Backbone:
């Protein structure tokens, strides 16, 4: 376990380094001078040159990269060109909102997805199974931002029971969480069903049944426990996606989370803010995946020694 | 006499046993897969639907009642009527026509992005799998970095870097999905290269290029087809998401994503405007997914749904 952990950690550091390099190159060579955009057209060349110097944009590119890395290690990405807010503070402020949203969507997806997956595996081929599978295909295939708009129309406008924007009350998080979670509820239901069906065909399940264990005892204790490993992996990765991919939902409900920060930074060509958000999002994603991989290896010894260790 | 009849029956029985239980006779790998696919009613229905959608996309001017960019200022945000079944948008353009023309964007982007992804993925995956060693570990590390980027952020960064435009969208979406193809092809090639027939062609003096292009890749063809079919709906979703965020297809060119984005302002009194493009996305994506699942399962005789 230790050597596997060490290997994965080294790999993670390498990946993060690669991400920083790609991010930096992509964003530094962006066409359109951010300084010109920032000062608009009224600035004369002299002022532009002065501002460029102040921002350190006139340094050679490798010096800028080293500075960027140095800053990133200390979580210092500079200050935003536009709002003049310290980037790390902006990240922290928005992160809190996004974490709340991701957690609520995660709870929604897990509460809906996993039990319905178990049900449809148990009632395989029956009406419940068909219904769950159809709903999960719809959930996976409908764009999340569109589901969000439909929810706004139904619950916000027609029934007028829930707010359609804002982020200060618990009620205002309900619709965004459902919209963000719907897709993952669908994929969780599918993987739970597949995994359960696979386990239910095993000999030890037949043994447990023959032994006279109650039906739900077999399902919950013997089957679910063993079916859990692939579910845990998927669920963990899904959480990573929810933490990093909520920008569409945040846009629909105008929630000032990390995704909205990224979109705004991108349209303003706000380099420090953009580098900060992209690095942050990639970082969270990589770390969540690392945790998932490690817990997977912890749950299933085969990963440590076999395929995964290569 | 009775003995003869008995023998006849016995023969008949033997003959019947040659035919598999499901009544299919062996007709080669692709023939068999196709037979199994034809029995999958859902997949066949979705295949018909896809053909219909693609035909609509190609011949968009025929089913579309109006030009998608024709602005009728006397009918701005009109409610649904026989003249405009889904109403009109804020510039008086017919929504149904825009949805029909929007299928062109979605389908072509889905297909081209997957072609880009397959070209990159198959080439790199085959090289990796064939050579192994250093080349394998270098490409694997690159793939890890690509995979570690959250997809939408990555696409956004590329679009910001290269600028908005259809061509750049193709590249961004292709770059987003090649890793999965490369992974699968790498695995298949690694298995196949140990087979005797590859050994034989090498002994016969075949060049590496010939072995990879003629000996290995054609044997991965069914994997590639499935990956492309299941990759297209993904690309369609990404396109819609990026266009919704305003960094994909730019108006006035209609795309399902940018239509929903524009419709957001009017949800309180023209809900149909935002609902219908989403329905189009959903139907297309579902059809591709179910058909792709059917294709994936077709070569496996053990699987019965």
Residues:
């Amino acid at each position: 376990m230790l050597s596997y952990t060490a290997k994965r950690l080294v790999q993670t550091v390498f990946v993060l380094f690669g991400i920083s390099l790609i991010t930096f190159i992509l964003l530094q060579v962006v066409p359109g001078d951010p300084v010109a955009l920032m000062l608009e057209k009224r600035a004369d060349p002299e002022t532009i040159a002065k501002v460029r110097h102040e921002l350190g944009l006139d340094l050679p590119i490798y010096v800028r990269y080293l500075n960027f890395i140095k800053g990133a290690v200390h979580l210092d990405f500079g200050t935003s060109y536009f709002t003049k807010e310290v980037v790390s503070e902006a990240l922290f402020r928005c992160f809190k909102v996004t974490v709340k949203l991701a957690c609520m969507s995660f709870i929604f997806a897990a509460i809906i997805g996993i039990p319905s997956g178990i049900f449809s595996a148990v009632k395989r081929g029956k009406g419940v199974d068909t219904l769950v599978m159809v709903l999960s295909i719809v959930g996976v295939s409908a764009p999340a931002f569109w589901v969000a708009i439909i929810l706004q129309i139904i619950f916000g406008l027609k029934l007028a029971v829930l707010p359609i924007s804002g982020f200060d009350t618990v009620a205002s998080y309900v619709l965004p969480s459902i919209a963000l979670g719907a897709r993952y509820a669908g994929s969780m239901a599918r993987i739970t069903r597949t995994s359960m069906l696979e386990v239910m065909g095993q000999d030890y399940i037949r043994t447990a049944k023959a032994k006279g264990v109650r039906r739900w005892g077999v399902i919950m204790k013997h089957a679910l426990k063993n079916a859990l490993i692939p579910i845990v992996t998927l669920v963990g990765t899904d959480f990573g996606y929810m933490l990093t991919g909520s920008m569409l939902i945040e846009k629909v409900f105008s929630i000032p989370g990390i995704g909205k920060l990224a979109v705004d930074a991108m349209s303003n060509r706000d380099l420090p803010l953009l580098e900060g958000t992209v690095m942050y999002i990639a970082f969270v994603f990589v770390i969540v995946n690392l945790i998932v991989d490690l817990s997977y290896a912890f749950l299933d010894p085969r990963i440590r020694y076999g395929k995964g260790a290569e | 006499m009775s003995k003869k009849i008995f023998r006849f029956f016995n023969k008949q029985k033997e003959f019947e046993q040659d035919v598999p239980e499901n009544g299919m006779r062996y007709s080669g790998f692709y023939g068999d897969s196709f037979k199994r696919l034809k029995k999958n009613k859902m997949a066949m229905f979705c295949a018909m639907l896809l053909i219909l959608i693609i035909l609509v996309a190609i011949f968009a001017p025929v089913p579309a009642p109006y030009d998608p960019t024709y602005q009728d200022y006397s009918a701005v945000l009109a409610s649904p009527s026989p003249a405009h079944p889904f109403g009109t948008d804020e510039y008086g353009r017919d929504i149904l026509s825009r949805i029909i023309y929007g299928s062109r964007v979605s389908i072509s982007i889905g297909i081209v992005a997957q072609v880009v992804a397959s070209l990159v993925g198959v080439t790199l995956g085959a090289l990796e799998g064939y050579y192994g060693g250093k080349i394998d570990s270098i490409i694997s590390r690159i793939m890890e970095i690509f995979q570690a980027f959250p997809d939408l952020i990555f696409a956004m960064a590329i679009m910001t870097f290269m600028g908005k435009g259809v061509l750049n969208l193709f590249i961004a979406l292709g770059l987003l999905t090649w890793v999965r193809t490369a992974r699968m092809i790498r695995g298949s090639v690694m298995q196949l290269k140990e087979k005797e027939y590859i050994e034989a062609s090498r002994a016969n003096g075949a060049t590496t290029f010939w072995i990879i292009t003629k000996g290995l890749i054609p044997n991965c063809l069914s994997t590639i087809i499935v990956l492309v079919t299941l990759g297209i709906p993904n690309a369609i979703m990404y396109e819609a998401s990026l266009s919704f965020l305003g960094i994909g297809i730019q108006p006035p060119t209609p795309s399902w994503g940018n239509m929903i984005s524009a419709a957001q302002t009017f949800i309180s009194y023209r809900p149909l405007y935002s609902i219908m493009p989403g329905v189009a996305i959903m139907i297309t994506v579902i059809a591709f997914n179910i058909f792709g699942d059917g294709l994936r399962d077709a070569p496996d005789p053990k699987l019965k749904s």
